[in-house]
Amino acid sequence: MSPRVLLLRIARKLVHVRWLAALVALLLSLRTRVFLRGGGQPVVVILSQGRAGHSYSAARAARSLGLRVLLVSPDPVLQEMVYAHYLIRLDPLTDTDKVIERLRPLPVEAVIISIKHIILPAQVKVAEALGVISCGAEVAHLA
User: Fold this and answer.
1) pTM for this one?
2) pLDDT tens digits for 61-108?
3) 19-39 burial code (b ≥16 CB/10 A, e <16)
């Protein structure tokens, strides 16, 4: 196989994955709209930066425990969306107050990020505003 044919095949796969990620994001957004209207089952919120810093390991762990996963990310990646039930497209680092507004009426059980993540202070703020356990502001400041 020539290098040109190999590069064309790789390019096709990359285009296909982006298209698939866009479709999955659209379907999750539609499911989220229905969920936000009716409340429903308790959820675990996964905060993520998407391409800038994903939290797919946290989403995978929550889903493996049988929990409903609500992903909050400005630019979600396919690896995270595979494990999510719902999706809210907000940046938890810069739009923390908007995230809290959207999550306040929901039955949130936990707010989770991946270990040593840059958005730990946002996780603490969101968790404390929703009345779930957090590591605390002092620990977030030290990390």
Assistant:
1) 0.79
2) 998 999 999 999 998 888 888 899 999 999 998 999 999 999 998 899
3) eebeebbeebeeebeebbeee
